[in-house]
Amino acid sequence: MLGAGLYFYHVAVVPGPKSFLSKKTPLKKTDPLYHQKLWFEKVHKTKWTMKSAGGDYKLVADYIPAAKKSNKTVLIAHGFNGSKEDMGAYAYLFHELGYNVVARDARGQGQSQGDYIGYGWPDRLDDKKWIKKIIAKNPDSKIVMFGVSMGGATTMMVSGEHLPHQVKAFIEDCGYTNVKTEINYQAEQLYHLPTIIRVPLVDIVSLITRVRAGYFFGQASSVKQLAKNKRPMLFIHGTKDKFVPTKMIYANYRATNGPKEMWLVKGAGHARSYQTKPKAYEQHVKAFLDKYVH
Fold it and tell me: N or C: which end of the chain has fewer CB within 10 A?
């Protein structure tokens, strides 16, 4: 069982190519978000760096100032085994709404150093440091955090931390309730492991993760963090999400104690809500931000 645990630790936690993720393909004009993604590829970016909150990793982000001077800044969090480059369309959306953009690479992914994927838990403390860096640049900042998939879960996990008053709102798109439940679900979906094997195996992988990466899967809970949140949050999820089950949005939505809105995107698969309904997505995000960030 330990051998199987080490194998699944490599699959689930060690960064690198994953057979269960679709391979990245060149940008095509048929992409509903072609214009947005092309803008991100071409726009001038300033590289920001800092040390991680725990460990000694160099973390990297791209900073894109708003077209007109603005106090509004968005911190964007990408998904599992991803990078800031995956978030180009979202960066465009916020930039169009007049925001400065900080798109960061989580530890162990993209250009950031690290030898494990944190699923949002250690990353939440790194994001607190990115928030401090934004405020150091402009103490009058009005900060929104946004994330998709693992980045959505990270956003929810950040919401439960003690944060500066400059943080005004959160938007999460298809984040999971907690890491243990999500990995258990994936073990069943991808490997069809029966419960009698799956449950102890996930516990072993969690223990290995505690030794090597500093956290148990059970600690990394969006729901528990949301219970401490009082700030506004918009929850988004596709109705056809088979990677992070759609039902998870309900537990997350119930858990938060701040003003909240929920939008289910009909027919959208995992992390595909924006490209499924681009105009409606932009309208929902704008309406929510207009209400809470002035």
Answer: C
